[in-house]
Protein: Prostacyclin synthase
Amino acid sequence: MSWALLLGLLAALLLLLLLTRRRSRRPGEPPLDVGSIPWLGYALEFGKDAASFLTRMKKKHGDIFTVLVGGRYVTVILDPHSYDAVVWEPRTKLDFHSYAVFLMERIFNVQLPHYNPNDEKAKMKPTLLHRDLQALTEAMYTNLCTVLLGDTTEMGSGWHEMGLFDFSYSFLLRAGFLTLYGVEALPRTPQSQAQDRSHSADVFHTFRQLDLLLPKLARGSLSAGDKDLMCRVKSRLWKLLAPARLASRAHRSSWLESYLLHLEEIGVSEEMRARALVLQLWATQGNMGPAAFWLLLFLLKNPEALAAVRTELEHSLSQEEQPVLQMTTLPQRVLDNLPVLDSVLNESLRLTAAPFITREVMVDLALPMADGREFALRRGDRLLLFPFLSPQRDPEIYTDPEVFRYNRFLNPDGSEKKDFYKDGKRLKNYSMPWGAGHNQCLGRGYAINSIKQFVVLVLTHFDLELISPDVVVPEFDLSRYGFGLMQPEHDVPIRYRLRL
Ligand code: HEM
Ligand SMILES: *[C@@H]1O[C@H](CO)[C@@H](O)[C@H](O)[C@H]1NC(C)=O
Ligand SMILES: *[C@@H]1O[C@H](CO)[C@@H](O)[C@H](O)[C@H]1NC(C)=O
Structure:
């Protein structure tokens, strides 16, 4: 940095110091903490490791407080009994779109004319439920077989080595891409499937480069080198997902058809449509792979859990007429009757799902807390719920909350456990990996089916093991709080082979 620039920065900072009238807490408002750096407040600490920062603030101020983060006053609520009061407020009071629009523009360069998120959601919703969900689930199994079994067969017999994160993320994203965006040709031929494998691998590798830059991109802290890379990666993705290129694909999902129609109706240009499709690739595919990674890793690290899942699976599959190795789809009744696997999935998500649930305060209002207190919120501030800390990792709700217990969501008789308490009161929502209220995940059913199919496919068709059995579960990449599923700081090597 040159001296002139440094001096300029110092002068600007000084000016800021003099100009900012420090906000003070008014009667009835939550505790206010502006930190010691003018304007920035706690932005650096928040960006570095949001969970530790918010835990520290909770110890200092309790479960509601307001902090200054990069010029914005953010009121944080960490009492899960009080979340309902926030997530169902109408948009005129607490708006849930402006932050999404900000991310959409900043990260994906998407600007839609006459953008109405409610309308968009209403159109998308039916394409991810009921009969369409069934069609997606079936297509997903076929595509998982294409990429997973196809790749492995192509590589030849014997053991293959790979990182478990790479393994889970790439196969789920590639199959997910083929399921939603269509395949090369129908009926499938060996040639078209080879094409599906290489094209989807190209999409994954390009997507993953963007995914890695995402936290920095969202905070606006990319280096010059990062920026170059990002531009190249984005334009490559826009080409790969260009509507003209997708037009010739077969077996496109009704989700894609209806989304493209919607974009056309609101008059979105061809170029902007490609960008919107890249945004959707991230929204739909960014979490399944990481979720499957943690699930498989917890199973590999907990032999008792793995044995319980295997026993349940063998029992369930033994009731089917056809052996699993010959099935071209997994019957929904099999997927729906795996309570141990459900508990394992929910436990994995409890430990690793860390989305921010945010709202913009549109008018001055009084927020009622579940314990009877009421707090005044100021127009223009932002609200933040962080279920990762509570309920998900709250020691009052879960004993040893940081420990993976595969049967945490099962009663001793094997039925689903639903009673969890805080402050002596039963919780309605004790884990919120899918978000809450108005913006709950629409793809939940499809995501759950897909992850379960992937795990079943891996457990029935492969031998899979950790290369070093006593490897420790990696720490989180701490820059990713807020985006959804956490990713590991580094990958975990495994070996796998087709079981014949
Ligand atoms: C493990 C996998 C997944 C997790 C943990 C997850 C989680 C979430 C969360 C937390 C939100 C709320 C975001 C917000 O607050 O704005 C969300 C929204 C959404 N998800 Fe998922 N998701 C997953 C997979 C999927 C899949 C596979 C699809 C579709 C095929 C999907 C479609 C959507 C859509 C369309 C929304 C937007 C809803 C809105 O506009 O408010 N998700 N997801
Ligand atoms: C797991 O969570 C899903 C919803 O996210 C729920 O429908 C299901 O009943 C839960 N199952 C268990 C065993 O906890
Ligand atoms: C919690 O679950 C109940 C239904 O069990 C639902 O009505 C409510 O909106 C949920 N609250 C949140 C914050 O998701």
User: Anything to note?
Assistant: The chain has one domain: 117-498. The CA atoms of residues 183 and 250 lie 5 Å apart. The longest strand covers residues 64-69. DSSP finds 19 helices and 13 strands in the chain.
